Structures are given as C-alpha cells and as structure tokens.
Please model this.
Amino acid sequence: MPRYDYKCEVCGVIFEARHGFDDPPPPCPNGHTSVHRLITSAPRVLKGMAAAVSKHASKEELQAKWSEETPKLRKKLADKLGEDAVSKVPSLNTDSKK
Ligand SMILES: [Zn+2]
Model:
C-alpha cells in the first residue's frame, strides 16, 4: 500500500495515511473529513513549515504564511516534477481553492 500525506483543511494538521490511490481520503486525527492529499515529495517541507508556525501562529497567520510559502514551494515542485503534476495538487493551487 502506498503512503500519502494529507492536510486537514479544518485544523490544518498534516498526517500520513496508507491506502490505495483511488480510495477516499481518510479523516484527520481529529475526525475532520475535509482533507486533501499532499504531493509525495512535498511532505517534509510542508510538515516542517506547519510545525514551525502551528505552535504560535493564529489561523490567520498560518494562512498568510501558507499563501506566502505555497508559490515558492509550487515553483520548486514544478521545476522538479513538471507543471502537470503540480497543477493536480489542490494545496499548491491557492486560486482554485478560494
Ligand atoms: Zn482536522
């Protein structure tokens, strides 16, 4: 079974789950079902970023940080994996979410 990283859209927690690619996403550890899968090569960056800001930052600050970092991360991944792969990741395409 492949392992995927997910980010909860409600509480922002990032967690790993092991299941098939086409299975529905699992709920977050806090029971929320609004989660989205993170691209496979991004988790370490995202986790580090989330860990760095989640302890002290408010939700607004976290979102600001997120939208500040996401384009950089997105570009990095686009260089590495190609635009096609990156465009499929909702968390890296902020304009498609709002
Ligand atoms: Zn949650």
Summary: The radius of gyration is 13 Å. The chain has one domain: 3-97. Strands lie at 3-8, 14-18, 35-38.
